[in-house]
Design brief:
The structure holds 2 protein chains of 2 kinds.
Chain A: E1 11-24, E2 27-40, E3 44-48, H1 55-62, E4 70-75, E5 78-79, H2 88-95, E6 96-99, H3 111-116, H4 126-139, H5 155-167, E7 173-177, H6 185-202, E8 206-209, H7 213-217, E9 221-226, E10 229-235, H8 237-243, H9 271-275
Parallel strand pairs in A: 3-8, 3-9, 6-7, 7-8
Antiparallel strand pairs in A: 1-2, 1-4, 4-5, 9-10
Chain B: H1 3-13, H2 15-66, E1 70-75, H3 119-124, E2 138-139, H4 141-149, E3 153-174, E4 177-193, H5 197-202, E5 210-213, E6 223-227, H6 228-234, E7 241-244, E8 247-255, E9 265-269, H7 270-276, E10 282-283, E11 285-290, H8 296-306, E12 310-314, H9 315-372, H10 374-382, H11 387-424, H12 436-442, H13 457-484, H14 489-492
Parallel strand pairs in B: 4-9, 6-8
Antiparallel strand pairs in B: 1-11, 1-12, 2-10, 3-4, 3-11, 5-8, 6-9, 7-8
The chains are: A alpha/beta, B alpha+beta.
Chain lengths: 276, 494
């Protein structure tokens, strides 16, 4: 499995001529203007941009929380903009997995119960839900901590539970909103690695909105948003991993390698790398 | 993990708040069920009073018609004129009953009618209620005196009546007048009647409604006729022997009392009664039968003239007394009904206030909860909870809270319903508007008794129903607010 490199598949998210205008008093404030974007299945994408660039609006529109003024949002072939408001929760439940900056676990539920939440009313029996939740928690490295409530977990562990919860219904897209924003550098690295590994091994499509250039560098595609438009697209380190070539010396690497076996340079962007 | 257990966990998450809310709601609910309990108790008592009074009036009226020729003679009892006299004519009147043990009972001396405002109120205590009064036995010779010296007399029945029981000290409270009296708690009343053939065959000196065995026969001695109550009290039936005041008697029959005044009376030969009560040669009353009903007043005047110490009561006197009683009862019932309608409107006002207050408690608590948990709601919606799923979550929490409060409310109500209802409804449980004194003194519920609120299963069900209803009403708007929270709040709300 470690050598399996997933090639980009068919489009899982397509934004066509997407515009969103907020009306503030008599003024129309454009948040997104004629934005086009295609994300294929299995991609790991970072959306970056300064405050006010439209990141949040874009995230809300992709997450079916907000409706665009114009344009189409195609999610896994379904036109979300054509759906009535009261059907959008299904898209969120079946096609989306959300990861939040503040983890947003329910404090009165333990880790397993938090992971089970999105599976409610999905036709799974209680024992199936339980089994799946335990598997997902094992996948994010939290075996044996199923019964812990959030206040007994570290910030990094809480975000892992949130990631497991986002994966519960096998979503087409994981939508992460500043997932590393509340973590220290060690936990930040752990979460980024976890997301990258999920992307490599499970083929999970991840769209991550972030301020954090280090986190963004570890994705495959970096999109820079400005004034409601995508103004720049860059390749991230994760693309090299998928190509199995070291970004520093061009030698062949394994997807599981943390450092290049030849030049010994780190294959994940770290604070040191950016400092240099 | 289901929606129900999540709701429970959310409630138990804020223990102090949940506890305070449950207690506050519970108290409100206990008020809500205590008020109807009080109203029901009030109505029940009023109905019992009305039916008892009307049956008493009917019985007395019937007796008067049957005994038009009958004249009762007795020495004035200590409480003459205080109680109402003799509802059943032949049997009892205000002060007869209290022979007491050794005649030493001083029952209520100095208890003047004036303090109780006269007629109507006095009537509540009537019918031999003040059993502690001294019997004033009279010499048996009066019998032959009247029989031979008064013209127009058909027959004379000498009667010895003696009540047996224990002396009981009671505290009375009537409209602020308080008094401690010693009364006889009557267990049974011995009625000694002369079992001569002419009286037994021709005059109504014995009960007629025999339910077992046979009636007393002329000339019988050593036999006794028991009322159904006596039979139960002594635990004997027809053919058994029963010991009364140390003397053994054979039970020949059991009768069903025709009036409330008869229930404790056992009949025996006059001489047997005199012997066992140490009253040989004495009687407590005489019943004179006039030859025809037109002569009654003449005969009565002749008796009074011959023996001025006797209280002489004719059917006419009894009728007059009855109509006084009747108007007293009518007034009492009217005021009871008026008080009932006041009580009902008070009850409705109070229930409206409590319902409003309770729903507002639920409303504000749930609104606060929703506000406090905005981020959680946003998260739930972001991870795919529908509006209706969120709404049911909060509705269920509100309803569960109310059900828990319902349990507390019923617990409080089952203990405190009488107190709560008497505080909130001035006429419940006080008895001031009811002839409660009668109940206290005689220890029976012949006048309906005190209105004491008790929780019936229906009221308990009502309590739960109201709790669920209020929980639903109070959490409807907050739950709707919760459902309207946008999932975006999950990202940015702190």
């Amino acid at each position: 499995m470690s050598n399996t490199v997933l090639q980009s598949g068919k489009p899982v998210l397509k934004l066509e001529n997407l515009s969103k205008t907020y009306t503030l008093g008599k003024h129309d404030v454009p948040a997104l203007s004629n934005l086009n974007l295609t994300v294929n299945a299995g991609e790991f994408v970072a959306i970056m941009g300064p405050s006010g660039s439209g990141k949040t609006t874009l995230l809300n529109v992709i997450g079916c929380i907000d409706k665009p003024t114009r344009g189409k949002v195609l999610l896994d072939g379904i036109d979300a903009t054509a759906l009535p408001e009261n059907q959008l929760y299904r898209i969120r439940r079946e096609k989306m997995g959300f990861i939040f900056q503040t983890f947003n676990l329910l404090p009165y539920l333990n880790a397993r119960e938090n992971v089970e939440l999105p599976m409610e009313g999905q036709g799974k029996s209680k024992s199936e839900q339980r089994k799946r939740a335990s598997e997902l928690l094992a996948m994010v490295g939290l075996s044996g901590r199923e019964e812990h409530r959030p206040q007994r977990l570290s910030a990094g562990e809480q975000q892992r539970v949130a990631i497991a919860r986002a994966l519960a219904n096998n979503p087409a897209i994981i939508l992460a909103d500043e997932p590393t924003g509340n973590l220290d550098s060690q936990n930040k690295q752990g979460i980024i690695k976890l997301l990258a590994n999920l992307n490599l091994t499970q083929g999970t499509t991840i769209i991550m909105v972030t301020h954090d250039s280090q986190a963004a560098r570890n994705t495959e595609r970096m999109l820079l948003l400005k004034d409601g438009k995508i103004v720049k697209e860059m390749k991230g380190l994760h693309a090299n991993k998928k190509n199995q070539t070291c970004p520093h010396c061009g030698s062949s690497i394994q997807v599981t390698d943390d450092t290049c076996p030849v030049c010994k340079k780190p294959l994940y962007a770290s604070d040191e790398l950016f400092a240099s | 993990m289901g929606i129900g257990s999540r709701a429970l966990r959310n409630i138990s998450r804020r223990k102090v708040r949940a506890l305070l809310v449950i207690i506050a709601l519970g108290f409100a609910l206990s008020i809500m069920i205590s008020i109807p309990a009080g109203v029901l108790a009030n109505e029940k008592t009023a109905n019992a009073v009305a039916s008892n009074l009307s049956s008493l009036i009917n019985q007395t009226g019937a007796t008067i018609n049957q005994t038009l020729t009958q004249i009762d003679c007795s020495l004035a009892p200590n409480f003459s004129g205080f109680g109402f006299t003799s509802p059943s004519g032949t049997t009892t009147s205000g002060g007869y009953n209290g022979r007491g043990s050794g005649g030493s009972t001083s029952g209520g001396s100095g208890f003047t009618p004036g303090q109780f405002g006269g007629g109507t109120v006095g009537g509540y205590f009537g019918g031999g209620a003040f059993n502690g009064g001294q019997a004033n036995p009279m010499n048996e010779s009066l019998y032959s005196d009247i029989n031979t010296n008064i013209a127009g007399v058909a027959a004379v029945e000498p009667v010895l009546q003696a009540s047996e029981g224990n002396n009981v000290t009671r505290n009375l409270n009537f409209n602020g007048y308080t008094r401690t009296i010693t009364t006889l708690d009557v267990k049974y009343t011995i009625e000694g009647v002369p079992l001569t053939a002419s009286l037994v065959d021709n005059y109504p000196i014995l009960p007629t409604n025999i339910t077992a065995g046979s009636n007393l026969q002329a000339g019988e001695s050593g036999d006794v006729l028991l009322s159904e109550n006596n039979s139960a009290y002594f635990g004997v039936g027809v053919g058994d022997s029963v010991t009364i005041l140390g003397q053994s008697f054979t039970v020949v029959g059991i009768y069903s009392p025709s009036s409330v005044a008869d229930t404790q009376m056992l009949y025996m030969n006059l001489s047997d009664a005199q012997a066992i009560t140490d009253n040989t040669g004495y009687i407590t009353s005489l019943t004179v039968f006039a030859q025809n009903s037109g002569d009654v007043s003449t005969v009565a005047s002749a008796i009074s003239a011959l023996h001025p110490e006797l209280t002489v009561t004719t059917a006419q006197d009894r009728e007059n007394a009855l109509s006084t009683e009747e108007s007293g009862y009518t007034t009492a019932l009217a005021s009871a009904n008026a008080s009932d309608s006041t009580t009902n409107s008070t009850a409705i006002e109070e229930i409206v206030v409590v319902v409003l207050a309770t729903s507002l408690i639920v409303l504000f608590v749930m609104l606060y909860t929703v506000k406090e948990r905005t981020k959680e709601i946003g998260t739930l919606k972001a991870i795919g909870f529908s509006n209706s799923a969120v709404m049911s979550q909060f509705m269920l929490e509100g309803i569960l809270l109310s059900i828990l409060a319902g349990v507390v409310g019923i617990a409080i109500g089952s203990v405190a319903a009488p107190t709560i209802s008497s505080i909130l409804l001035p006429s419940v449980g006080v008895g001031a508007r009811l002839p409660a004194g009668a109940t206290i003194i005689s220890g029976t519920t012949r006048f309906g008794g005190l209105a004491v609120a008790t929780l019936t299963p229906e009221l308990v069900l009502l309590g739960f129903g109201v709790a669920i209803l209020l929980g639903t009403l109070g959490s409807l708007y907050p739950a709707w607010r919760a459902a309207k929270i946008r999932p975006a709040e999950a990202m940015r709300y702190e």
